[in-house]
Amino acid sequence: MANYTLVFGIALLINVVVTLRSSEYWERRCAAAAAAAAAAKKKKKKKKTSRDGTDEDDDDDDGGGDMENALLPNRASSSDDVNTEDKPTASSTKEERDKTKHASLLRRYLAVYLLAVLSDWLQGPYVYALYDAYGYSQHDIAVLFVTGFGSSMVFGSFVGGMADQCGRRKFVLLFSVMYGASCLTKHMPDFRILMLGRLLGGISTSLLFSVFDAWLIRAHSDSGIDRRYLSKSFSSASYGNSVVAVGAGLLADRAAGANSIRPFFQSGRGDVDEDGSSSPNYDSSVYLGGYLNPFDIALLALVLCGFLAAALWEENYGDSSSGNDNGNGNGGEGGSHKDGGNTNINTNSSSSSNNNDQGRRRWYDALRNASIATWRNADVLLCGLISSLFEGSMYIFVFMWTPALTSLSSSSSSSPPPPPGDEETITHDEAAATAATEGENDKSLPFGLIFSTFMVCCMAGSSLFSILSDTPMRIEVMAVGVLFVSSLSMVIIVASSSDTVTLCGMSAFETCVGMYWPIMGTMKGVIVPEDKRAAIYNLFRIPLNLIVLTSLLINLTPTAAFVANAVMLGCATALQVKLAKRRSNMATAVIAAKKMSVEDEEVDEEMKKSLLALSKKKEVEMGGGGGGEDTNMP
Fold first, then answer.
1. Which tens digits make up the pLDDT trace of 249-272?
2. What pLDDT does 119 receive?
3. What is the pLDDT confidence band of residue 34, given thresholds at 50, 70 and 90?
4. Contact 281, 498 (CB under 8 A)
5. Is 50 exceeded by the pLDDT of residue 577?
């Protein structure tokens, strides 16, 4: 059996080292060490210069010059220090200003975002347990879960477009209200009320994974901060998300075990089964305590999230006048007009037509426009397919890691090792069957410790991204590496019959998950057009929800699930390679175009100089041919 405590300790140590390396403390230490080294080098050079001046003055037998020559270098260096250090450059001033703006923006964003993900993490572990405590069968519970993912797929597809048009902060407030209402429905075991809660929860999940990111990207653009700070924001959000997940797990576990679930208002059950037992389908009672406590804490977090969003966030929209709004991934340059005289005419006519269109705007127009923009832009389409494949494999991993580790742990602890030469590879399915026949109980595994290990690996991945983002490595190339390692980790999980090796493969995948979120957030921020951002983000979730629903409906075994994950991640890696080549070619073309424009300007300047020199020469020749008499005139 794997030593889960040792694996957790190793993951925690790696996380501490990587986090320290990516922190501002490390940057300050490195800057101080570099400054000290430069000062020591300068001091050594001063001593050498002073010594050389003293030797020359000794040869001249001039005692008064020794003191003066020894002090001159110090005076010069001190004046240089004043000129270079006391007068900051414009670039350093802008850097400090960007840091201040980014720190303020990040604090405001994380204050709201972390409360939102806290409410989500608090509910996750106890949804199934609550339904089971209400007495529902596995089929009924599966129907409820499928309803949630279906709601996210159907309603979330056009809710994002409405957020772009009506305001993203408004829909963050709507998220808080809807997710809070979903928490309240958990207090009633009536199947119809629970179904309504799953519908609200599905829409809220779509808003959580689209509107928050869209608001952050637009806020970065409006504040005028350098684009590289966007990667830092996503990295900080991913790291904070992992920290909140660990804390939410501990808090929810303590809250759920504080007391038992009990009826606050009890009524007779309206549905009776054929055997005479009561069914919870139409129970109008209200329950409190037990597994409901985490949902009550999540409700408080959502209320605070809404208040902070209203107080700290400004409203922003999917404005086509900012960012890469044309959908071609060129940063909005495609929408510029070369004919300055006709710009106002085109703007006025288009604005009047837009006003007329707004009166006839239908609820599905945003979804239709987002679909057209995604289909016409290969970069946006590739980005959506990659995110759907990776996040779909991540959801399947969440469903399957528990039975996979349980089966391997049960088979390794119950069966003696085979004699040498008789080893056979044990699949996850065979191990699960062995565990079922021998009646092994999955409670022997420390699931809380394993979950904490995964979250620590996510934190390490976020910190590793922060380190790599300061290097010249392009974000698309970084994504290729992350997707390839993710696919390789799934291959290790499938091929391994050891619970220790399987756990290490799962930890590697979770590290890639921690790197994936800031990488994909940054790529989407560059590629997806601003005016359709939230709508396209939710459009990306349609194939994702199809993958999740398919995995739930066909009842995959652990081995088949991880094989499917390996295939999906391999396809995502190939698509990311194609996207990286496209973005590299585009960047090369832009650089070449700028270089050609500079060369053309230089050629034009040379031509102007040549024409000017030629005209002057002709003037001189003309003046020399008939100017003899003119020069003698008074």
1. 889 888 988 888 888 766 555 444
2. 95
3. confident
4. no
5. yes
When pLDDT is averaged across residues 478-485 and rounded to a whole number, the result is: 96
Please report where in the chains the tokens 């920290």 appear, as a residue.
243
**Quick one: tokens of 535?**
């709508």
Asked if 206 and 485 count as a contact pair (C-beta separation under 8 A), the reply is no
Q: Give bridge partners of residue 262 from the DSSP assignment.
A: 288
Cβ atoms of residues 203 and 151 within 8 Å: yes
> Both tokens of residue 136?
């529902």
Cα angle 283-148-316, degrees, rounded to a multiple of 5 = 120
Is residue 191 very low, low, confident or very high in pLDDT (cuts 50, 70, 90)?
Answer: very high
Neighbours of 310 (CB within 10 A): 14
Residue 250 to residue 119: CA distance in whole angstroms: 13
Hey, which of 40-49, 186-195, 418-427 has the most confident mean pLDDT? 186-195
Total residues found in the chain within this entry: 634
Sign of the Cα torsion 280, 281, 286, 292 reads positive
In words, the CATH class of domain 323-331+365-413+428-595 is mainly alpha
Q: Where are the domains of the chain?
A: 98-317, 323-331+365-413+428-595
Q: How many CB atoms lie within 10 A of CB 560?
A: 18
Helix (H) or strand (E) holding 358: helix 343-359
How far is Cα 396 from Cα 557, in angstroms, rounded to an integer? 11
**CATH 1.10.10.60 is held by the domain 98-317:** no
What is the spatial distance between Cα 463 and Cα 347, in angstroms, rounded to a whole number? 45
Amino acid at 517: W
CB 226 within 8 A of CB 98: yes
CA-closest candidate to residue 113, choices 251, 219, 32:
219
Q: HSE-up of 121 (CA within 13 Å, CB side)? A: 24
Do 98-317 and 323-331+365-413+428-595 share a fold? yes
Q: Residue for token digits 């040379």?
A: 606
Closest C-alpha to 524, from 338, 288, 335, 324 = 324
